């Protein structure tokens, strides 16, 4: 391990565990500063150690490195355990503290664990970033759909929206209404045009006539604007009611719970 030669894998492995003597650690560090090849080799060892550290099984060191490591531990003055334990101080703690002997076993394990944790969280963080990116694109998509739905609602209900009813040529325009209904959601959109005006104390009322023969359900009040157009968007309706038909009556301004005949518009 002199300056002229590259550092062996085994010494790099020991260096990564800080298991060399202080002099050797310094020598390796000095060499690494000027040698890209050995730096790359050390990086590989650290990466490999970190990945192995993620698995439960204990990593086996290269044979030579293991021997030298064990020899290094054996050569460590025995006061570490014997002397200190006589003073009733925990041996592990003093081993960790002993100057000049690297990190000792505890430090060795801790160092590996630290690398493993760092790599693991690096990976986790990458995964989270990817997930976050995906969520953001989902949100953007939902938001775009919501914007579209809002535009649709605005277009249907805005006083500025132009309502045009197409009829056969030369036929006078008749009152007409279009209901779009989704029973499972109780969602209804009703748009009408060419409506006759109603007296101020009166209103049009829309009715959902259930397929099960039960009483008509009030589905919203509406009054035509100056052009004879009106709409009812998503009135309060129970979910899951199949509709046989829709009808419109004229009621007192506050509306009614039962339709007052005649039905002025109907469709099924
Ligand atoms: Zn080198």
TrEMBL record:
UniProt signal peptide: none
Cross-referenced InterPro entries, in alphabetical order?
Anti-sigma-K/W_factor (IPR051474), Anti_sigma_zinc_sf (IPR041916), RskA_C (IPR018764)
Sorted UniProt keywords: Cell membrane, Membrane, Transmembrane, Transmembrane helix
What GO terms describe the biological role, i.e. biological process, of this protein? regulation of translation
What membrane topology does the annotation report for this chain? Single-pass membrane protein
Q: Would you tell me the Gene Ontology cellular component terms?
A: plasma membrane
Mark the transmembrane ranges: 103-123
Name of this protein = Regulator of SigK
